[in-house]
Design a protein that fits this description.
The complex is a heterodimer of chains A (about 850) and B (about 325). Chain A is α+β, with helices and mostly antiparallel strands and about 850 residues long. Chain A is built from 12 helices and 21 strands. Chain A starts with a helix and ends with a helix. In chain B, α3 packs parallel to α4, α5 packs parallel to α6 and α7 packs across α8. Chain B is elongated, with a radius of gyration of 23 Å. Chain B is α/β, with parallel strands linked by helices. The chains are: A alpha+beta (about 850), B alpha/beta (about 325). Chains A and B meet through loops of A and β7 and α7 of B.
C-alpha cells in the first residue's frame, strides 16, 4: 500500500536524491584532489629528483675537488720544502724516502727526475727507527760471533743458542770447531730443533753473504735463513733448504736488506721435521756485508724518464698540477701531480707524485646520494672515462662506446652543454671538477624516478578509493540520520492520508524537520477533534433524515389516498351533474307541458260551451287528458324518484366532503409538521418547507371548497325537499282530477250541469296549473341552478383532483428527497467512518 | 556575501600593506636618498679607485655612500656588512673576499639586496633582482685573446701557448681561461699549452714562472696572461733570457697603464679593455634599482635571468692603443 503510494510518478527518496547529488560531487572532488596532488607531487618529485641528483653530483664533485686540492696542497708543501732546503743528493733521497708509504693515496711517494735523466724515488724503508746502533763486524768483516764454535758456551744467552720445541728432542756439543747436533726426535716443525744466533746488525740496502760448512751423518736437509724477531720474524733472507751429505761442503747465500736498519737480525739453522734424525755438523759460519745496493734510478724504470707523461707535463708548470689519467707500467689507472722544481742551478727537475684513482672511483661510485643513480667521470680533454662502476668502461673513449646514451653525452660534453638534461631516457647532470678538465656525469633513468611516482600514483588511487568509501559511508550515515525523521514523518503522513489518525509523530529535534513533526502532531490532534464532531453531527443528521423520510413516506401515502378519494368524488360529482341536468331537462319539459296544459285548460274553458256539442269529442279528449294525467303522474313519480336520488346523492356528497375535509385537516396538520421538520433540517429542508406550506394551503383550500359544496348541497337538499312536497301535492291533485275526470266521463250527462262547476273546476284547475307552472318554472330554474352548481362542483372537484395529483407528486418529491437526504446522511456517515481517530 | 566580506578584508589588508610599504620606502628616501655601502675586498690603489668612482656615481644620483675595506678578512667583511645593514643602508655593494662566504654575507645583509662586484659569487648564490653580479664578461676577454692569437697565427697548424693565470678559483681566472681555451679549441688547430700555471695576477710571480718555463726549453709561440701585469712579467723574463720577444705574442687583459704602454712600445701585442666606468655606472644604477624594488632586467647588458649585468670588453692592440692610454 505504501509502496503503491510512493510509486506514484516514480518515487525517489530524498536520501537517494541527496546521495545521488553529494556522492558524485564528493567522488569528483576526491578524484580532482587526488589528481592534483599527484600532479603536484609529480612535479615535486621531479624537481626533487633533479635537485637531489644535482646536489649529489655537486657533493661528489666537491669531494673529488677537495681530495685533489688536499693532495695538491700537500704536494706543494713538499715541493716548497724541497725547493727551500736545497738538499744534496743524499738528503733529497732521505726526504723522498720519508714519503714512501706515507699516504695511502700515493703509496709510491714522491719522485724527482731531471732532464739529464737523473731519477730519485722514495725507497720503501719501513718505519724509521732512530738511534739504531749497528755493531761493527770482526776484523774479517764477519758479524757472527764464535763462527767456529771454539769458545762457545751454549748455556749462556750470548751468541749461539740451541733450542728445541714442538716435540723436538736433541742435544748439541762442540767438536773440533764444529757443532754437532744429535737429534732424538725431529719434532713436528722445522724449528723443533734449532740453532740460532741473534743480534746481527743488518743495514738497509746492504748486500750480505751468509756462508758455512756443513755435513751430516746421513744424507738429509735442513733450512737456513735470516729473520727479524723484532719485526714479526720477517725474513731478510728467505729460508733456504740446504741439502747435506756426509761430505763436508761450504754453503753460501746472498741477500739484500731492503728493510730499514735492524740491529737484531738472527741467523737460523732449522733442523726439525726434515724427515731424518741424522746428526748434523756445522762450522765456519760467517755473515759478511759484501756491498751496497742501489735500489732505484732511471735504469730501474726501464724507460727514458724524460719521455714520461708526468715529466713532460711537469715541465709545463711550476705549481703542482694534475696530469691526465694514464696507465702506469703496472697497468693501473693513475694520475700524476707534477710540477717543475725551482732550482738554483741550470738543472731542470720535475717533482711528481702518482695518485691512484681508486679514491676517486670511490667518490664517483659510492658517494651517490640518490638511489638508482650512477655516475662516471670523464676527462674532457680526450673524452675518456676515468671512473665508472662498470670497470670495463674505464679508460674507454666516450665517443667510441657503442651506446647511444654515451655518445649523446660525448656530444654534449664536446659542445660544452653542461646543463641538466634528459638524454636517452636518463636524467643527466654534468658537473665540472674545478682545476681539472674533468666532468662528472651523473644520471638516473627517468623511469626509476617515475617508479616512485607509480607507487605514489597507486597510493593516491588507494587513498582516493578509501576516502571515497569512508566519505560514502559517512555521508550515507549522516544523511540517514538527518533524513530518518523525514521518513518517519512521511510514514505518519502516509498513514494519515489513508484516514488513520491514530498515528503519532514523536519528533525530537530543533530543526525544520522537528518543527514539521510537531506541526503534524498538532494537525493530527486538530483533525481528530474535527472528525469526531463531524461524526456526531452526521449521526444526528442521519437520524433526522430517517425521520423525515418516514414522515414524507406517510405523507405520500396520505396524499395518494386523498388523490384517489378526490378522483372518486369527481366521478360522483360528474354523475350528480348528469343527474341534475336530467332533472333540469325534465323540469323544463314539465314546465312546457304545464303551459301546454294551461293552454289546453284555456281551450277547454273556451270550448266548454262547445263541449256539449262536442261532448263526444270531449269524452275522447277527456280520455286523452286521462292518459296525459297518467303520464304526468308517472313523470312526477319519476321526478319524485329522481329527486329522492338527488337527495341521496347529496347525502353521499356530504359524506364525501366530510371525508375530504377530514383529509384536508390531516394534510394541513402534516404539512405543519413537515414545515417544522423542514425548518429543523435547515437549508436542506427549505425546499421541503415550501412544499409543506403549499400542501397546507392546498388542504385549507380543499376544506373551504368542501365547505362550499356542503352548503350548496344543503340548499339543494332544501329545494329538493320543497320539490318533493309540491310533487306530492301535485300527485294528490292529479289523482283527485283523475277521479273527477273519471267521474265526468262516467257522468258526462251531469257534465252539463256540472259544466259550470266544471268550468269552475277548470278555472281552479287552471289556477292550479298556473301554480304548477310556477313550481315547474321554479323547479326548472332551480334545476338549472343546481346543474350550474353541480358544474361548478365538478370544476372544483377537477381542480381538487389536480391539486391532489400535484400534492401527490410533491409528496413523492419530498419522499424522494428525503430518501436522498438519508442517502447523503449515510454517505456522510460512511465518509466520516473512514477516519480512524 | 560572507566571501565578499572576506575578500574585502583581504583587499583592505593588501592595500594597508602596500601603503605601509610605500610609507616605509618613502621614509628611507626622504632621509636624503638611498644609502649604499661598498664592502671592498682590501685597501690599496685599485679598490680605493673603485670606491672613489663608485662614490662619484652615487653622489650624482643623490645617494649616500660609504665604504669599508675588509683587508681580505672574512670576519671583517661580515662585520662591515652587518653594521651597514644596522645603520639603515638600502643596498650593499660588495666585493666578496671569497666566493665561499657569500651565504654568510647574505645573512649579514638581512633583507637588503646586494650588488656583487669585483669577485664573482657562485651562480647558485645569485637571485633574480636581489643578489646580482655586475662585472665584465670575463669569458669575452679570453675569447678576444684567442681570436687575436688565431688571427696572428692563422697559418700555423700547431700553436704553443704559455698560459699565465690569475689566482686559482678566482672568477676572472676561470672566465678568461675558459674563454681562451674554448675559442682556441673550436679553431680545430692543435693547441699545446707548453706551460700553464697560476701567477696570481702578479708580475713578479709571472716573471719567475716564465723563467722556469724558458729553462724547460720549450717552443713558445705566444704568452696569454689573465691580466697585463702577468703578461709584462713574462715579457721581462723573455727579454732577460734573451729570447726574441718579437716572435712571441704577449697578450694581457685590463688595458692597464703599463699594459698599454708596453703595447705602444711593441713589447706586448694585445690586451682587452675592461670598461671600468661602465661597470661602476651599471653597479650604482643596479644598486639604486634594487633598493627601490625595481628589476634590473631592463638594464643594458642584463642577463635574461636577471642575475648578471656583464659589461663587454674592448679589444686593444697596437692600432688603437693610443685611445686607451
Amino acid at each position: 500500500m505504501k509502496r503503491k503510494n510512493r510509486d506514484q510518478g516514480r518515487f525517489i527518496s530524498i536520501k537517494t536524491k541527496l546521495l545521488g547529488v553529494i556522492l558524485p560531487v564528493v567522488i569528483v572532488i576526491v578524484a580532482v584532489l587526488a589528481g592534483l596532488s599527484y600532479h603536484v607531487s609529480k612535479k615535486i618529485i621531479q624537481a626533487n629528483a633533479e635537485e637531489l641528483l644535482k646536489t649529489s653530483v655537486e657533493s661528489q664533485a666537491a669531494q673529488i675537488e677537495a681530495w685533489l686540492n688536499q693532495n695538491l696542497t700537500s704536494f706543494n708543501v713538499q715541493k716548497q720544502a724541497l725547493e727551500w732546503m736545497d738538499f744534496d743528493e743524499g738528503q733529497m733521497q732521505a726526504f723522498l724516502d720519508a714519503f714512501r708509504s706515507f699516504d695511502g693515496n700515493y703509496p709510491e711517494g714522491l719522485y724527482v727526475a731531471g732532464t739529464d735523466g737523473t731519477f730519485y724515488a722514495g725507497r720503501d724503508v719501513g718505519r724509521v727507527e732512530r738511534n739504531i746502533v749497528l755493531r761493527e763486524p770482526d776484523e774479517n768483516g764477519n758479524y757472527i760471533n764464535n763462527g767456529d764454535f771454539a769458545a762457545e758456551n751454549l748455556t749462556d744467552d750470548k751468541d749461539w743458542q740451541f733450542l728445541t720445541a714442538m716435540e723436538g728432542e736433541a742435544s748439541a756439543e762442540m767438536q773440533d770447531n764444529e757443532i754437532f747436533v744429535r737429534t732424538v726426535n725431529e719434532g713436528t716443525q722445522d724449528y723443533s730443533v734449532q740453532l740460532v744466533q741473534a743480534n746481527l746488525p743488518i743495514q738497509m740496502q746492504g748486500v750480505y753473504r751468509v756462508s758455512f760448512d756443513a755435513y751430516a751423518d746421513a744424507g738429509r736437509t735442513m733450512k737456513v735463513g735470516i729473520t727479524a724477531p723484532d719485526r714479526d720474524y720477517k725474513r731478510y733472507l728467505e729460508d733456504q733448504t740446504v741439502t747435506l751429505t756426509t761430505e763436508k761442503q761450504t754453503f753460501s747465500y746472498e741477500f739484500t736488506m731492503t728493510d730499514n736498519d735492524d740491529a737484531n737480525g738472527r741467523l737460523d739453522f732449522n733442523m726439525g721435521a726434515a724427515g731424518s734424525a741424522a746428526g748434523i755438523r756445522i762450522g765456519n759460519v760467517s755473515l759478511v756485508k759484501t756491498g751496497e745496493a742501489k735500489l732505484t734510478g732511471s735504469e730501474s724504470l726501464g724507460v727514458d724518464v724524460t719521455q714520461t707523461e708526468w715529466f713532460q707535463e711537469g715541465l709545463g708548470r711550476v705549481n703542482m698540477g694534475f696530469t691526465n689519467a694514464y696507465k702506469n707500467d703496472k697497468g693501473e689507472q693513475i694520475i700524476s701531480a707534477c710540477g717543475m722544481l725551482r732550482t738554483y742551478s741550470d738543472d731542470v727537475r720535475v717533482l711528481s707524485v702518482d695518485l691512484s684513482l681508486d679514491k676517486i672511483s670511490v667518490y664517483v661510485n659510492s658517494f651517490i646520494k640518490m638511489e638508482g643513480a650512477e655516475a662516471f667521470l670523464v676527462n674532457t680533454e680526450d673524452n675518456t672515462i676515468l671512473a665508472s662502476r662498470d670497470t670495463g668502461l674505464i679508460s674507454a673513449k666516450l665517443s667510441e662506446i657503442d651506446d647511444g646514451y654515451m655518445r649523446a653525452v660525448a656530444d654534449r660534453i664536446s659542445q660544452n652543454e653542461l646543463d641538466l638534461a634528459e638524454i636517452s631516457g636518463n636524467l643527466s647532470v654534468f658537473e665540472e671538477i674545478d682545476g681539472t678538465a674533468w666532468v662528472l656525469v651523473s644520471f638516473i633513468p627517468t623511469k626509476t624516478i617515475y617508479s616512485d611516482l607509480s607507487g605514489l600514483r597507486n597510493m593516491m588511487v588507494l587513498i582516493g578509493v578509501i576516502s571515497v568509501i569512508v566519505l560514502t559511508i559517512l555521508i550515507e550515515r549522516i544523511v540517514h540520520l538527518i533524513i530518518n525523521p523525514v521518513k518517519e514523518l512521511t510514514d505518519v503522513i502516509t498513514t494519515m492520508t489513508d484516514g488513520d489518525f491514530t498515528v503519532r509523530s514523536q519528533m525530537a529535534g530543533n530543526d525544520e524537520i522537528g518543527v514539521m513533526g510537531r506541526c503534524v502532531e498538532k494537525f493530527i490532534a486538530a483533525m481528530c477533534g474535527m472528525i469526531a464532531s463531524i461524526n456526531g453531527v452526521s449521526g444526528t443528521l442521519h437520524n433526522q433524515a430517517d425521520e423525515s423520510r418516514d414522515i414524507s413516506d406517510q405523507m405520500y401515502d396520505a396524499s395518494r389516498q386523498q388523490n384517489e378519494s378526490m378522483k372518486e368524488l369527481n366521478k360522483t360529482v360528474e354523475e350528480l351533474s348528469v343527474s341534475v341536468n336530467g332533472i333540469a331537462q325534465s323540469a323544463t319539459t314539465l314546465a312546457t307541458l304545464v303551459e301546454e296544459t294551461k293552454n289546453d285548460g284555456d281551450g277547454v274553458n273556451d270550448k266548454m260551451r262547445e263541449t256539449v256539442d262536442v261532448s263526444k269529442k270531449g269524452r275522447e279528449a277527456m280520455q286523452d287528458i286521462s292518459a296525459a294525467m297518467q303520464n304526468i303522474n308517472s313523470s312526477v313519480t319519476k321526478l319524485q324518484c329522481a329527486i329522492d336520488k338527488v337527495g341521496n346523492a347529496s347525502e353521499e356528497i356530504i359524506n364525501i366532503t366530510r371525508t375530504i375535509s377530514s383529509i384536508a385537516d390531516e394534510t394541513n396538520l402534516l404539512s405543519l409538521n413537515a414545515s417544522i421538520e423542514a425548518a429543523r433540517a435547515g437549508e436542506a429542508g427549505r425546499g421541503f418547507a415550501v412544499v409543506a406550506v403549499e400542501v397546507g394551503k392546498l388542504a385549507q383550500t380543499s376544506a373551504e371548497s368542501v365547505q362550499d359544496i356542503d352548503n350548496l348541497i344543503l340548499e339543494i337538499k332544501a329545494l329538493i325537499g320543497d320539490v318533493v312536497k309540491q310533487a306530492d301535492d301535485s300527485m294528490k291533485n292529479i289523482n283527485g282530477s283523475s277521479v273527477l275526470i273519471e267521474n265526468a266521463v262516467g257522468t258526462f250527462d251531469v257534465i252539463f250541469e256540472n259544466i259550470v262547476s266544471v268550468g269552475d273546476l277548470v278555472q281552479q284547475m287552471i289556477e292550479k296549473v298556473d301554480r304548477v307552472e310556477d313550481v315547474a318554472r321554479d323547479v326548472a330554474a332551480i334545476s338549472e341552478e343546481q346543474a350550474a352548481s353541480s358544474q361548478e362542483i365538478l370544476a372544483s372537484s377537477d381542480i381538487l383532483v389536480e391539486q391532489a395529483n400535484s400534492l401527490m407528486a410533491n409528496s413523492e418529491d419530498v419522499a424522494r428527497e428525503s430518501k436522498e437526504l438519508t442517502g447523503s446522511a449515510e454517505e456522510l456517515a460512511a465518509q466520516i467512518g473512514t477516519f480512524r481517530i | 556575501m560572507y566571501f565578499m566580506k572576506k575578500r574585502a578584508v583581504a583587499v583592505g589588508l593588501a592595500l594597508a600593506a602596500t601603503v605601509f610599504m610605500t610609507v616605509g620606502c618613502g621614509k628611507a628616501k626622504t632621509a636624503g636618498g638611498v644609502k649604499t655601502y661598498y664592502a671592498a675586498i682590501e685597501s690599496g690603489a685599485y679598490y680605493e679607485d673603485w670606491a672613489g668612482r663608485l662614490e662619484e656615481q652615487a653622489q650624482m644620483r643623490g645617494m649616500e655612500f660609504d665604504v669599508g675595506y675588509a683587508e681580505n678578512s672574512v670576519e671583517m667583511q661580515d662585520m662591515q656588512v652587518k653594521k651597514a645593514m644596522e645603520e639603515g643602508c638600502g643596498v650593499i655593494l660588495c666585493g666578496p673576499v671569497s666566493a665561499d662566504i657569500v651565504t654568510e654575507l647574505k645573512v649579514a645583509a638581512g633583507d637588503l639586496p646586494i650588488v656583487f662586484i669585483n669577485n664573482a659569487p657562485d651562480d647558485g648564490q645569485l637571485e633574480e633582482d636581489r643578489y646580482i653580479y655586475v662585472a665584465s664578461d670575463e669569458y669575452m676577454a679570453g675569447q678576444y685573446q684567442a681570436e687575436y692569437i688565431l688571427e696572428k697565427c692563422g697559418s700555423m697548424e700547431e700553436i704553443n701557448i704559455v698560459l699565465l693565470k690569475g689566482p686559482k678559483g678566482a672568477s676572472g681566472t676561470r672566465g678568461r681561461t675558459n674563454g681562451l681555451k674554448r675559442t682556441l679549441k673550436e679553431s680545430g688547430k692543435r693547441i699545446n699549452y707548453v706551460f700553464e700555471d697560476y701567477a696570481d695576477y702578479n708580475e713578479e710571480t709571472a716573471r719567475e714562472l716564465m723563467e722556469l718555463c724558458i729553462k724547460s726549453g720549450r717552443q713558445i709561440d705566444c704568452v696569454a696572461a689573465n691580466n697585463d701585469d702577468m703578461a709584462l712579467g713574462a715579457v721581462t723574463a723573455c727579454e732577460n733570457a734573451g729570447l726574441d720577444t718579437q716572435s712571441i705574442l704577449f697578450l694581457g687583459v685590463d688595458a692597464s697603464v703599463n699594459g698599454c704602454q708596453a703595447i705602444s712600445e711593441g713589447r706586448m701585442d694585445f690586451t682587452v679593455y675592461q670598461p671600468m666606468s661602465d661597470q661602476i655606472t651599471a653597479a650604482i644604477e643596479a644598486a639604486e634599482k634594487l633598493a627601490d624594488g625595481q628589476s634590473v632586467k631592463d638594464m643594458e647588458y642584463a642577463s635574461e635571468d636577471g642575475k648578471y649585468i656583464l659589461i663587454p670588453f674592448e679589444k686593444v692592440d697596437a692600432e688603437n692603443v693610443s685611445q686607451y692610454k
